[in-house]
Design a protein that fits this description.
Low-confidence stretches: none
Oligomer: single chain
Number of domains: 1
Bound molecules: zinc ion
Number of strands: 2
Order of helices and strands: EEHH
Distance between the termini: 31 Å
Mean pLDDT: 86
Strand content: 5-15%
Largest sheet: 2 strands, antiparallel
Radius of gyration: 14 Å
Length: 77
């Protein structure tokens, strides 16, 4: 499923979308001009200055959680 940074038409900032048409900060949706998020989203460059601060905070937490899960999954009991 698509995830990554994208710039909704009316926004000056980039917002992070993850498995949803709504940004993870909850403020932005893809407009009709961005009907194909699969091609437009860029996953990475989380520290880009044009990124939305709320999305950035959240994506870092999400990545940390995903990494913690990966570590937990790799432990053989
Ligand atoms: Zn945002």
């Amino acid at each position: 499923m698509a995830q990554g940074w994208g710039q909704p038409g009316a926004s000056k900032k980039f917002h992070y979308f993850k498995d949803s048409m709504t940004s993870i900060c909850g403020k932005w949706m893809w407009g009709p001009a961005l009907s194909d998020p699969e091609n437009a989203l860029e996953d990475g460059k989380h520290e880009h200055p044009e990124n939305c601060a709320a999305c950035k905070k959240k994506v870092i937490l999400l990545e940390r959680a995903a990494n913690a899960q990966a570590v937990a999954d790799s432990i053989i009991v």
